[in-house]
Amino acid sequence: MDWLGAATIVPGLILVVFAVTDSSHAPDGWKTPYVYVTLILGTALLCAAFYIEGWVAKVPLLPFDMFQVKQMKPLVIALFFSYGVFGVMERILGASPLLTTAYYLPMIVGGLILATVGGFLLHVLPGTLLLIISGIGFILSVLLFAIIPENPSYWAYILPAMICATIGVDVTYNISNIFITTNMPQNRQGLAGALINSLVFLGISFFLGIADIIATATAHFGPKESYKSAFWFGVGCASFSLILLVLFVKIEKAKSDLTVEEKAELEAEVRPIELRPTMMDEVQPSASLSDTAPE
Questions:
Q1: Inter-residue contact 194 to 73 (CB < 8 Å)
Q2: From residue 238, how far is each of 33, 81, 186, 231 by CA, in Å?
Q3: Sign of the dihedral defined by the CA atoms of residues 220, 225, 230, 233, in that order
Q4: What pTM, to 2 d.p., does this model score?
Q5: Predicted local confidence at residue 287, as pLDDT
């Protein structure tokens, strides 16, 4: 068990997220002592965790070789920004908690449909194309809130935004899990799955804090306009994530294939067979010379 890693990663993330999310509500903002102290302590703990995971821990929580898998780094960054685009809908629309809950019903229904149909689509369409579709869904989900007018129509803005958000979240989550199971060795799949699950909540909490900072900084424009500024920030995050997915992440269609370990075992078995003809060719000239030697 990597106790040092757990003792630095978890409190480090908590302190950094706390400093970011509470800075906009602190008496003096970033100048408030407990804000910059927690930020400094959290950053120091994360730096210590980086050193521990790379050079101290024998069984690290986040082994560096997990990020050496091709396309893993851009995928992790893209997921972090994608999951961070969710904002607060209740305050921007002025809706009651019960009505806000009703607004999210399309996400539940859409999630059930995508969970059923998505399994078939993964074998028909390339994973890269599905990631692009989910990235566009993320962009539209926050763009519709960024341009939403006064007294908006539920059917024109809120319902499409919720459907697009469902497409973004569910498709991205499924594709990322397909990527893990096909590209990660078996002893790393659990860690990679835990990392992606953690990115969901870490991205939401971190970027919600950033969005709150933007909303507070633009509060002089009024509540609705300030939160629209936060949603425009979400559009930027989703667009950056889509660019990363298009340029650096290539995932094929899901198919029944060998695992990483099975491919390595197969290559190990095939390699000696491929070397045998070469060894026979090397022996053949010496045999021919002995045959032609004078008696």
A1: no
A2: 33, 6, 31, 10
A3: negative
A4: 0.83
A5: 47
